[in-house]
Amino acid sequence: MSVTVRPAVATDAESWQRLYAGYREFYGLSADEQAVERTWAWVLAKQHGITGLVAVDVAGAPGIVGLANVRLYARPMRASMGLFLDDLFTDPSARGHGVATALLVAVAETAAAAGADVVRWFTAGSNGPARSIYDRVATLTPWITYEMIPNKGTE
């Protein structure tokens, strides 16, 4: 497999939506065609600062074989910008062929071109295969992630 990464374009819709639905399923989210379509619309229009990257097999596999969605964010304590990797997913049939690594290289290049000084993301602790790739290209941080539901207060 010979992989190249490029920005997502309108003709990627069907492949991208199939992969993104698989990504949601991987993380235990229920099937939600509206959520997939809404996210695709954001990617295509670059809404909310999202840039969509896709990996294609230039040797002939139809459609896309991987996706990554990124967005810039401000880093006030550093007075700099960072790039956040929201989503990274490889088609199960293309795993082990360098797709995720190619996407991560493209993400790093996107960050550098935008003047960002770091790329950040998080993943599930149980996502061993992806973490083995991440451990080769990035540094695991000591930060713990919290989530708070809006309008729930601090009961």
Fraction in beta strands? 15-25%
Number of strands: 5
Helical region count? 4
Strand-pairing-aware structural class: alpha+beta
Q: Write the CATH homologous superfamily.
A: Gcn5-related N-acetyltransferase (GNAT)
Calculate the terminal CA-CA distance, rounded to whole Å. Answer: 53 Å
Overall morphology:
globular
Instruction: Label the CATH architecture.
Output: 3-Layer(aba) Sandwich
Organism: Microbacterium trichothecenolyticum
Pfam families: Acetyltransf_1
Keywords: Acyltransferase, Transferase
Protein name: GNAT superfamily N-acetyltransferase
Walkthrough of the structure:
- InterPro entries: Acyl_CoA_acyltransferase (IPR016181), Diverse_Substrate_AcTransf (IPR051016), GNAT_dom (IPR000182).
- This is GNAT superfamily N-acetyltransferase.
- The chain has 155 residues and is α+β, with helices and mostly antiparallel strands.
- The chain is 34% helix and 25% strand.
- Strands 1-2-3-4-5 form a five-stranded mixed sheet, sandwiched between helices.
- The termini are far apart.
